[in-house]
Write a structure and sequence with these properties.
4-stranded antiparallel sheet, globular
Amino acid sequence: QGQLMESGGGLVRAGGSLRLSCAASGRTFSNLAMGWFRQAPGKEREFVASISRNSFMTYYADSVKGRFTISRDNAKNTMYLEMNSLEPEDTAVYYCAADVFGTAQEMGVHGGKGIKDWGRGTLVTVSS
């Protein structure tokens, strides 16, 4: 099983920016569809964004389109989430996920169900 570790979370004011990173190990990174999910207090986990193995395809939740950008560097075994124009509603624990068999598109469709590789999460708090 692969290991994933998120970093980059923190406290930021509304309108600010943060960049999350997800470092992967234990699997061949270029063979993995990768994605970001988040879970706010009292709410269910939700899909944020995903990226295909070769970076050609990216998918976003409607709530973050135009504000967040997902990317990956297969040479560094790392995925990123650039978050701009942050809103208090973006406050959540952000998790990275890796899918060995599925596609980046399926990550969004299935909401992360069936994915076995998850990081421990990094907390993002956006103050108003």
